[in-house]
Amino acid sequence: MQQSFNEKIEELVEKGRKRDRDIEELQSHSVQQNSTVNGLISQIDNLKSDVTTIQQFDSEQNVTIQELSVSINSVNDTLHKQAQDFQTTEENLSSSIDQLQTNFVDLNRTLTVLSAATPLGHVFGNGSTDVENSGAVGLWTTDTLSDYSPILNGRMSFDGTAFTIPEDGIYYIYGMVTIAHDLVDTCGFSLFVRPASFLTANDQSVSGAQQSLFGSQVRKLQTGHRVVMTTTNCKYNFGIDRSYFGIYLLQREL
Q1: Which residue, 240, 247, 158, 153, is CA-closest to 198?
Q2: Contact, 187 vs 202, CB < 8 A?
Q3: Which residues pair with 202 in a beta bridge?
Q4: FRET pair for 162, CA 20 to 30 Å: which of 50, 54, 115, 191?
Q5: Residue 61 to residues 68, 126, 220: CA-CA distances in angstroms?
Q6: For residue range 59-75, what is the model confidence (pLDDT) as tens digits?
Q7: 155 near 166, Cβ under 8 Å?
Q8: Rounded to 5°, angle at Cα 163 from 161 and 167
Q9: Same domain for 67 and 125?
């Protein structure tokens, strides 16, 4: 009976030890589990950090891409505008070239006509400077002994103010005046076959600089017509190389 009790005691003690061992194993396993969980948590935190870094990088990349896109669009707009400007300039240049070619053709025609024309009269300014004139111009040289005396051919006559047409025909009439430098009024001249004006040349005189105005026209005139130059009320320079007035006969009336 005594032995059986001792055996029971030992059996209980052994069970207690086994339970302690099991508890220790469970505790050891729990520590390992905790260590594994902590490691996983640490890895998750690292992954989160990596994800955040990647997201930030992606965000920076998106900003950079957007900035590049804006820059590219700006460059494209600039290139497009420059292309349009170049096209406009090219069109304007082409138009200018066409106009120059037209002017050149007209000039050649005029020179061809004039080369076959007969100069009938040409008068020079009498040398007056800064002189006021309004109406018919009488400031032409009439000195027949001067190197700049009136040039008169055929039956053309000049009375100091007007040319008198000697025969029916087609005429080329021209003139130039120089505006004095100290005016700011609108000044200019007109060519008249009394009583009607057929050509007017006006301009705004700029203070500090002389302005020369030239005008010409082809007209059909009759015998006895008087051709006169008139000016507006301004100051002019009628130097021999600054103002002149003349007529060519292009074709006689048949």
Answers
A1: 247
A2: yes
A3: 188
A4: 115
A5: 10, 84, 82
A6: 776 667 777 777 777 77
A7: yes
A8: 160
A9: no
Residues 112 and 178 in one domain: no
Pair 109, 124 in one domain: no
End-to-end CA distance of the chain: 177
The answer on pLDDT for 5 being more than 70 is no
* pTM for this prediction: 0.53
Q: In the chain, what's the furthest Cα-to-Cα distance?
A: 181
- Residues 178 and 227 reside in one and the same domain: yes
Same domain, 245 and 141: yes
Structural domain of 68: 1-116
Contact 157, 164 (CB under 8 A): yes
The span from the CA of 143 to the CA of 244, in Å, is 15
CA atoms within 13 A on the CB side of 107: 6
